[in-house]
Design goal:
By secondary structure, the protein is α+β, with helices and mostly antiparallel strands. It is built from seven helices and 15 strands. β3 and β4 form a beta hairpin. About 2% of the residues have low confidence.
Length: 333
């Protein structure tokens, strides 16, 4: 199917417009500049590089190695949320507000300024996933935290303010409406079909043209209605709503597949800017039979313009099936 058409996202019921004539090859759709890995391994002006510990504002967790440290978790020095404020909501005439209660952490993934996950040793990614899990459990232990979001911004168009490899963890006292809507759609599907929507999609994509890679515990695929080129989901094969329930073998498998997909994107698209995030059940939803956690990777290859902003519709200039075929065949070094 190479003509323009529209597909519906089964998880959100939103429509995505496909216009493959806009871009036939990867370099045709890369309309924003990407960021190449810095040539230097240490930047004396970077607050995350060794020697600049005074700029960190403290260390929450450190993983040592044979020289000094392998990974650090530090407070976000410029947070949008604070654990020092209350939770009381205030009604002001028509409007509702509340303090920005939450918790923000930065995961400094390596002491090396230029060592990003796509080109890191697998052991480093396994440590990273293990730390994500540790901090997720610690933050969800606080009853006021309703949701924990783990994400990575790579490159300036993805929102990264520093080149040093890092990701972030944010706990909030609220759950955004879009997440509640997705939960409702999954609940409606479960009520109608008696099965988990995510599990059904997982089983279908495991034998289809949008499959990218898999291992014993995880599947990587491009969604049928991917909103952006090369958007890839990594989903556990075993039904789990909560990232906190991941086992040790699953953590290793998740790390392996995550690095594999990031490396494929790195070599195919010349180190593109991207965001990845872990979507997991909020508080009180961890045992729900209709929810399923997953990791979403969204490369930043196009820029939304007037139609997208005005209509709320996404236009994808490439087809998921073609993107998946390219990623499947892409070597990683």
């Amino acid at each position: 199917m190479d003509s323009g058409h529209i597909r519906q996202n089964i998880f959100t019921r939103e429509w995505v417009v496909y216009a493959p004539r806009r871009g036939k090859r990867p370099h045709d759709i890369k309309v924003v500049p990407t960021t190449s890995s810095p040539a230097i391994a240490h930047d004396p002006n970077c607050p995350f590089c060794p020697g600049n510990e005074a700029e960190l504002g403290g260390v929450i967790l450190a993983i040592p190695n044979e020289t000094h440290w392998q990974l650090r978790v530090v407070p976000n020095r410029f947070p949008a949320f604070s654990a020092d404020v209350g939770l009381t909501r205030v009604k002001q005439n028509l409007y509702l507000s509340m303090p920005s209660h939450g918790h923000q952490e930065v995961v400094i993934e390596s002491p090396k300024h230029n060592l990003h996950p796509a080109i890191s040793p697998l052991a480093a990614i396994e440590t990273l996933i293990d730390v994500y899990h540790q901090r997720y459990l610690a933050l969800m232990a606080a009853h006021e935290n309703m949701m924990v979001t783990i994400f990575r911004n790579h490159g300036p168009t993805a929102g990264a303010s520093l080149q040093h490899p890092h990701s972030q963890i944010i706990a909030t006292a609220i759950v955004p409406r879009i997440r509640r809507y997705q939960e409702e759609q999954a609940q409606l599907y479960f009520d109608q079909q008696g099965t988990c929507l995510f599990c059904d999609v997982l089983n279908y994509e495991s034998r289809g043209p949008r499959l990218v890679a898999e291992n014993e515990y995880f599947l990587a695929f491009i969604p049928y209605a991917a909103e952006v080129p090369y958007e890839t989901w990594l989903m556990p094969k075993k039904h789990k709503a909560d990232f906190g329930d991941i086992s040790s073998p699953e953590k290793k498998a998740f790390a392996q597949l995550l690095q594999q997909i990031l490396a494929k994107l790195y070599f195919l698209l010349d180190n593109p800017d991207y965001n990845y995030s872990i979507h997991t059940a909020p508080r009180y939803k961890a045992e729900e039979p209709q929810l399923h956690w997953y990791c979403q990777i969204r490369p930043r290859l196009t820029t939304p313009a007037g139609f997208e902003v005005g209509s709320g519709l996404s236009i994808n200039p490439s087809l998921p099936e073609e993107n998946a075929a390219q990623l499947r065949s892409q070597k990683t070094g």
